[in-house]
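Methods — Computational structure assignment.
A single polypeptide chain was analysed. Its primary sequence is given first, followed by the predicted tertiary structure written as structure tokens.
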Amino acid sequence: MADLTEQFEKYIELKDITVLSNGRTILNIPHAIIPADRITACIGPNGAGKTTLLKLLDGLIKPDTGTVNYSFRNKTALVLHHTPMIKASARTNISLVRDADSAITLSEIDQVIERVGLKNLSASPAHKLSAGERQKLCLGRAILQKPNLVLLDEPTANLDPSATEQVEDIIREFNQQGSDVIFSSHQLAQVQRLAQYILFIDQGKIKEKGPVGPFFSNPQTAAAKRYLHQELLAD
């Protein structure tokens, strides 16, 4: 087998991975090299295992078998699609990251609140924010963790076009400032706007992966061709 790691400055290697839940196989990945030096998109049908893969890469869950190895010293931040808010202000919710890292200063929190566009809403109850505002709050918490790899699960699901554009700008900022990004999405136009690399996941397996352009223009597997056809029709 050719050494595929040479094309990536940073990467994650999965070996003999299985993740089970109630007797059902959620992930089954014998071997995969995932780049961590660019924006990578995980796409695939509902229930394919995308969220589970992001949790695995974050270390939030452990595999039932196999290993996850990073070629670099990783510090990840995971933003899930449904992140609960406590009944307090937006600023208080963002400040919760200090529970895990007391070195984060109040000044840094204020800077991030302004950076994600929530300065005028910092005193508002977080649970009353719009979906887009809550997502920006979650991204603010991720920024404060100073990760070198950001994992995002459906970061713009159910957001209007304006909020989607704002969140995409924050994702690009992560990448420009040295935090690489792996995100899941059903929005193929968004994937083409943001991502440089694709992981296509179906039935818990990475069926296809590679640069965005060739994947969309000439998918190699029947499963990927079928998925793209169905999703493009839906759009």
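Note: Residues 44 and 201 are 5 Å apart (CA to CA).
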